[in-house]
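seq:
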Amino acid sequence: MSGKPSHEGRGTPPEGTPRVSRAWRPEGTRVRVGRVELGGPGFVVMAGPCAVEGMEQTEQTALAVAAAGAHVLRGGVFKPRTSPYSFQGMGEPGLRVLAEAARKVGLPIVSEVMESTQLPLMEDYVDLLQVGARNMQNFPLLRALGKVRKPVLLKRGLAATVQEWLLAAEYVLDGGNDQVILCERGIRTFETATRNTLDLAAVAVAKLRTHLPVIVDPSHATGEPELIQPMALAAAAAGADGLLIEVHPRPEQALCDGQQALTPERFQQLMRRLPGVLHAVDRHLWRPELPAQVAGAR
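struct:
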């Protein structure tokens, strides 16, 4: 997928060109998540708790992120944890809680699917199906997602190359689903100052090689709330199409990854600073497009 296509984007790409390659769609793909669109000039922010813990926590977080200007509500109900003794998520009851909170604030939902057997259940509740870093090369799951008609958020694996990441997306596209969003969430290196190493160069590389939207998760990448805002702003400047941010009303009490969650106040501060950075790179926070007759009258 490296190098410049000899056909300069005209007509059908040469035989054997991966469907994820920008040669298939030089103008880029726009992915719809509910009424929100990624891949255009609008920058999309997805925010919410790492894990749904109950109605009060989820609704409080949903109200806070919606008020700050988030576009999509995130929340995990099936949680792949390193330790089998850690909180594994609420499962189907958590989906109902998440859906009710999202309905109250009018936001679409992104949540992680861990195995293909969960798809029939999740398709009833979730607008964007997330594949976590640990499942980036779960090929049966990727093939199953190629058959659904819901958009997919594909996180980069813990030690995956950009090529491996894009070929994982190829499994979904090859199944017929081209509504895929890539997510850089940091990779494992020798550095220990942060939870992972955020690879913003990979964002720029992916934007060159593929037509798919690319977003960044600075929460998992850094593991430090003090680092989330600067890395989120850097991601916006680097050309990312959006962010995936963990927010919790009481991070110190969170059942999952509280150490890397922003408080609603810190998230609000980030949302206030984003427009300035986006303006510098000719972007803006996503907003619904006005009908042509209304836009022309303004």
